[in-house]
Amino acid sequence: MKNIFIKFFLPVTILVLFTSCTNHTDTIDIPLHTEKGYGPFIVSRHLVKPIRDTISYKGVPVNIKEYVVRSYHFQKEQLYWDQFRTGKISEEQFLKYASRYNIDTTKLTKDFVDEEVLFLIGTNQNEKRIIIADADNNEDFTGEKIFEYEYPVSLEEQYKDFYNPLPAVSVAYEYFDNGTTVKRTIDVKPSPYLGNLRISYNTGKEIDKKYDLFINVPEYKKSTIRINKTHFDVYVSNGFTSRAYSPKITSLFFCKKGETGISQTKGDIPYQIGDIFNANGADYKIESISRYGDNLLLKYLGENKFPVGVKEEMYLPKFMAVNLNNSVFSVDDYPDKYLLFDFWGTWCNPCIKLIPELKILNQEYQNKNLVIVSVAYDNNIETVNDFVNRENMNWVHLFVNMNSNDKNSIINKLKITSYPSTILVAPDGKIIARNKDIEELKQILDERLITL
Fold first, then answer.
1. Which of 48, 283, 347, 354 could bridge to 213 as Cys pair (CB 3.0-4.6 Å)?
2. Beta-sheet pairing, 421-425 with 396-401
3. C-alpha dihedral, 418 to 424 to 425 to 431, nearest 10°
4. Looking at 189, 212, 235, which one is the last position of a domain?
5. Minimal CA–CA distance to 53: which of 76, 83, 95?
6. CA 350, CA 358: separation in Å to the nearest integer?
7. What is the pLDDT of residues 258-293, one digit of tens each?
8. Containing domain of residue 60, as a range?
9. What pLDDT was estimated at residue 363?
């Protein structure tokens, strides 16, 4: 077997700062600590799929009518490394996992690490949906707490305080870190509810189709750091589906200390690894995060009084966009104009419902320095063109193919994740409103626009 060493994290020399730093520190290492709950982030969950391998276990309670047992892995890097070394997955498959999870094989071991925890999900004699976690991780369900769930329940009930009422259980597992196998416990919230997802399992077992199991880890990272003479609260999430912090799934918020109300569920946009954070006129690149989220590294880039970003009070980033006739769109073609970007799609019912209001807005403000720029995120440019003509949407229209993943597209550059979305940009390029309703936009425009 070939020896593969994939190393994405190079050692760096950093200056550890706990509560203060100067304006020109090249790097800032922010120590992070663990907080319970979800903080200001949207909660995600991990689907625990059936597996074809045989699982060894015992101690199933006698009052369980039927059940399946599934496993959750807390150190996927070690799992995939073991599977590759034992020939269960190919080199090509392993390389894909290595890229996705930033696997460094020099930090893994050839020895067995018990990072897998078993969960039993089924139905008891009272027709309740039940979940049992092998909390002590000994492959024995004897004496483990049995969690009961009403099932089925309406979709509305599933999403009403979806995660708060669900019970948490503390489970034990192992992981390999710094040359040593470490034992740890962690709280997880199992759930039997599918929500509005559509999932099918092709295991050949009908019972697998009856039971769905989701897991999330209710914890995030936090710190307080002084950057450029201001204290910031830092919140960091890895999506609540594992212990590892991969750069591709890590989200962050920087808030001035004591500032409240920031929430991803209310539309606030988190930073990602690689983004630029501006602290009082100084740009810092969010350089990296440690493997288990213990440290965050910022790199000082220089002074900048015109920070580029996607939030209000930041300046519009450069992006690629085309009109419906495939000509290149440029904001420079609209000097001295306020631009209202409307992100929509022909597939989006709320977007369609917004069109009459946009028509009225266009009629009232098109002679007052406002230009509406609708950006269709759709499958087919001809379908969009026909829809626009049929609905007499007489303003500027751009098209982004939803099957493409162009990192420079206006969708990616402005981090559009929900539809409809709106962004109002002033003539100097500053974003002055994001995801405001039409009445709020009118109020802002009335305060700013001057009739020609």
1. 48
2. unpaired
3. -60
4. 212
5. 83
6. 13
7. 888 899 988 889 999 999 999 989 999 999 999 889
8. 49-75+113-212
9. 95
